[in-house]
Design brief:
Length: 243
């Protein structure tokens, strides 16, 4: 379940178990302010990619704030604005609600904290805050440092099967969106523009093909320094597509 709050030109959504001490609309609005975070966070860092993704600690929680930006030609023209009547105008709320559903199904995804839509004329800006997954690294980092074991490939595939069984269509399944923690548990992140649907075998194989391309791309851009062979992927694929 979720709760919506309105403040001036902004709308917020939070989970029912929202535990941060920012309950009013004005307080929620500050939670999405980088100036407020810089002044009050115990720790703050930024990740790359399109736009800024802020990692910070506040009120005893390790959090991630991400703003949604456009890519391609529209990104150069509109940057962070989404036409209010377009199909992708509510990307933050869509991802937030999907994460709530996936958490309720027991799937290993980030815990959603809050999302924000900010209206500017006929356009919306989108933001989301999630909890950090601690003591983990994405697969691109892992294969730059060591081989994944056969058991790890199988566990990654088995985890993806859980998502497939629930009909989750991940539109950007790649090695940077799969995490391994120090206990060997597997997590999947970045559910922007993803959805639950009736998945066919072709859909699953397309997602796995995209994942394989990202492994091979990492090998190319590291001049074959990454620890991966395409033959290793068979274990992952077999586990992901198991009956």
């Amino acid at each position: 379940m979720t709760e919506q709050v309105v403040f001036k030109n902004a709308k917020f959504i939070t989970a029912d178990d929202f535990s941060l001490p920012y309950k009013s609309a004005a307080e929620l609005n500050r939670l999405f302010s980088l100036d407020f975070i810089k002044k009050n966070a115990a720790a703050l860092s930024f990740k790359g990619g399109r736009g800024q993704t802020a990692l910070f600690s506040l009120s005893g929680e390790d959090l991630v704030l991400r703003q949604y930006l456009r890519g391609g030609l529209w990104g150069k023209l509109m940057h962070d604005k989404f036409f209010i009547a377009s199909h992708d105008a509510h990307r933050a709320f869509d991802e937030f609600i999907l994460l709530v559903r996936l958490k309720a199904k027991g799937l290993p995804v980030p815990e959603p904290v809050a999302a924000k839509e900010e209206k500017s004329g006929l356009f919306l800006r989108n933001y989301i805050i999630i909890k950090q997954i601690k003591n983990c690294a994405d697969l691109s980092y892992v294969i730059k440092n060591r081989h994944l074991s056969a058991d790890e490939f199988i566990r990654i595939g088995s985890t993806l099967k859980r998502f497939f069984d629930e009909g989750v269509l991940h539109t950007d399944l790649n090695i940077r969106n799969i995490l391994l923690d120090n206990k060997g548990d597997v997590y999947v992140i970045d559910f922007d523009k993803c959805k639950i649907t009736d998945l066919g075998r072709q859909d699953k194989e397309a997602m796995l093909a995209r994942l394989l391309r990202s492994f091979n791309k990492e090998v190319r851009i590291t001049a074959n320094a990454a620890y991966f062979k395409e033959s290793d992927f068979a274990l992952l694929k077999e586990a992901a597509l198991a009956d």
